Amino acid sequence: MSDCIFCKIASGEIPSKTLYEDEKFRVILDLGPATRGHALILPKTHAADLFELPDETAAEVLVLAKKMGITLKEKLKCDGLNLVQNNGAVAGQTVNHFHLHMIPRYQGDGQKIGWTPKKTDPEELEAIQKEITG
Length: 134
Ligand code: AMP
Ligand code: ZN
Hints:
Blueprint: H1 5-11, E1 18-21, E2 25-29, E3 39-43, H2 55-76, E4 80-84, E5 100-105, H3 122-133
Antiparallel strand pairs: 1-2, 2-3, 3-5, 4-5
């Protein structure tokens, strides 16, 4: 994708603060970090989102996230780690090239990643279950 900024970053055409690189992935520091060390895993081959990502690449992403997560914990002494992956504008995706956020968490970092739990009931849950599995 010639006009995709993450394709250009992943290929090295646009410089980035790279933490790791191999044939298929580049891991960079996010320019608008939620916390210290917020990183993004970018596949080098363009896929707009999770749904376009080849299965093999999808499987490799989580293995790489584990490896990078261990490194972030060791080097930055973070207390925890959020993996965040947005698909679609309504879900917060702003760059249409698959990326996995790795957000190191520190006690008292003031960040909030989550949602407001809503009420439901067993009937509603059952209806949803049937809708998805039926
Ligand atoms: P999302 O909202 O999930 O699409 O996340 C896009 C992320 O990319 C945001 O956290 C941005 O701060 C980050 N970002 C956008 N442009 C760049 C860039 N040129 N280099 C590094 N990170 C970027
Ligand atoms: Zn791309």
